[in-house]
Amino acid sequence: MCDTVVIVEQGRVLFAKNSDRDPNESQGLEWHPRRTFPAGTAVRCTWIEIPQVRETHATLLSRPFWMWGAEMGANEHGVVIGNEAVFTRQPYAKSGLTGMDLLRLALERASSAEAACALIIEMLETHGQGGGCAYKNPRFTYHNSFLAADPQHAFVLETAGKHYSLQRVTGVRSISNYLTLPDFAEKHTDTLKTAVACGRVRRQRTEFLAQRAHSAGDLFQLLRDHGPDLDGPRYHFLNGGMSAICMHAGGVAANAQTTASWVAELAPGKIQHWVTATAAPCLSLFKPVSVNLPVELDPPAQEYPSEAFWWRQERLNRLVMHSPQKLLPLFAAQRDALESVWLQNPPDAQAAFDEHARLIGEWASRIQTQPSHDTRPWWTRLYWNRKNKACGI
Description:
Layout: E1 2-9, E2 12-21, E3 27-32, E4 35-36, E5 42-44, E6 49-51, E7 55-56, E8 59-64, E9 72-75, E10 80-86, H1 99-109, H2 113-127, E11 143-149, E12 154-160, E13 163-168, E14 171-175, H3 182-188, H4 191-197, H5 199-210, H6 216-223, E15 257-267, E16 270-275, E17 287-289, H7 309-320, H8 324-327, H9 332-344, H10 349-368, H11 378-391
Antiparallel strand pairs: 1-2, 1-14, 2-15, 3-8, 4-7, 5-6, 8-9, 9-10, 10-11, 11-12, 12-13, 15-16, 16-17
Helix pairs in contact: 1-2, 7-10
């Protein structure tokens, strides 16, 4: 479950996405340089192999550790893409390109948002979409919608099997876990699965907040949002915090967690990306990154214990979430002040990650000195006990 939003203005496009997946599914950043390949080369995607092109663009990807494709990313031409799971009445193929594969292929091969959508359509028609989309539940699959943007334009592309519908964006637009283009949605929507995913609730909230957003910092706050008048997540019995943009797992039937977040400022000649590279944006720190300037990070590991950056922050997150109203204020003001400074004068990406890594230790030390009890509902505590045991925390 995810949310992606774009704001198209005169001379500028703003983009933001939360990637919501299994809480133990670590998601790391990967920098890939421009590459050339011999004729006849193939590329192995998550489930199938397809012909490779002669040259691929430089990309920066946010990729769940187990798949070839990416949840969101950017390329050297200023193209950014986010994808969403959507549930349709079209048959689900046992194998094919996943939505994440399609996203990565588009970033590697297209130099504009419009070209990226055209490439995804071509790949759908040639290879189809399909295959398992969850590491722990390989039978869970879905179709996909995409929001692609560049410094001048943005497009929504919605799919159902090999069927698709495309819309050019003006102003504010968001996508979530349901089909939004009216005629296409009426024809293809799976009503029950779409209702469980709570996408309509979140999309209403993202577009409300985006109408009031004017900067990258505003989009940081949008991605941290738990709902009107809420300073922390509300856990419903069936699906935990799935109705919030900043998603926290903790229900008995359906669950997902925000496992990575991305904001992009796109203007001709000036592009700036901001990432958490961790779960839970409400607890994390947005850092500036660039497609062509890699940061030295350990790759995300399948499970804890790991010194990978994603898991270092995750240890802190799971402590704070016992009682976020009490524990988050121990470092939130310091976090917010640092982001304000960085928004005015972005530091070197490596320096920003190094500072965040240092702060994780400092903040964890503060939290561990504060007595607190777990304030979450019993069903949420039980869910997280199982998740922690499963990954080794």
